[in-house]
Specification:
single chain; alpha/beta; Rossmann fold; 7-stranded mixed β-sheet; two-stranded antiparallel sheet; 6 helices; 27% helix; binds S-adenosyl-L-homocysteine
């Protein structure tokens, strides 16, 4: 299968998997995933699977990116925070859907590569930071939306604090029994606290707190 055929096939799989928001679908169609995977894996770029990107990290499965982006209900005036830039693939789907995306990655090499890709893809509304994203980005808070693309142990309280009232956070949470099996949560911040909905199960690499060893 050529990359173009793979790309068309993937769009069908996303639709079948439940991505039915027209803006999200258009954003997914516009991104060249092959620009975000290591060269050696280019021919697998449009398979609906996560792929290794080095440092034991992965570029997310396209269906997961589609469903999480959809669950986030992003509007084009919104300020969005992403924890776990990784390859930059999820960021490149989100950026065209919002006003500005702030994204944090703890591995310098992944962070630099993602920055380079954003420049190449002319994604000019992304602000990047290298460091521990589990504390959020206080100077830029509040955010209307927050997406965490690594698995937390619980809904991170510091990120809830940086969510605007009425804002939404999508975060995978592992409850400890099996850290590879996580519940994907949609958390809405209200005047009184938070409301939580469970959206399904995901498999992300863990959110690692603290600076890199
Ligand atoms: N959204 C990415 C998926 C990346 S996998 C994509 O589309 O490719 C999760 C990423 O989160 C990894 O790159 C990992 O290094 C990063 N990460 C884990 N803990 C982190 C933390 N505390 N702060 C910032 N990044 C973190």
């Amino acid at each position: 299968m050529s990359l173009d055929e793979g790309r068309a096939q993937l769009i069908l799989e996303l639709r079948r998997g439940g991505v039915d928001d027209a803006r999200v679908m258009a954003a997914m169609e516009n991104v060249s995933r092959e620009a975000f995977v290591p060269d050696a894996l280019r021919e697998k770029a449009y398979e609906n699977i996560a792929l290794p990107i080095g440092h034991h990290q992965t570029i997310s499965q396209p269906l997961t990116v589609g469903l999480m982006t959809q669950a986030l209900q992003v509007g084009d005036r919104m300020k969005v925070l992403e924890i776990g830039t990784g390859s930059g693939y999820q960021s490149s789907v989100l950026a065209p859907l919002c006003r500005r995306l702030y994204t944090i990655e703890r591995f310098r090499e992944l962070f630099e590569l993602a920055e380079q890709r954003f420049a190449e893809q002319r994604l000019t509304n992304i602000t990047t930071r290298c460091g521990d994203g589990s504390h959020g980005w206080k100077e830029q808070a509040p955010f209307e939306r927050i997406i965490v693309t690594a698995a937390a142990h619980d809904v991170p309280p510091l990120l809830v604090e940086q969510l605007a009232i009425g804002g939404i956070m999508v975060v995978p949470v592992s409850d400890g029994r099996d850290e590879h099996d996580q519940r994907l949560l949609r958390v809405t911040r209200t005047d009184e606290g938070i409301e939580t909905e469970e959206l399904g199960h995901t498999r992300f690499v863990p959110l690692v707190e603290g600076d890199r060893p």
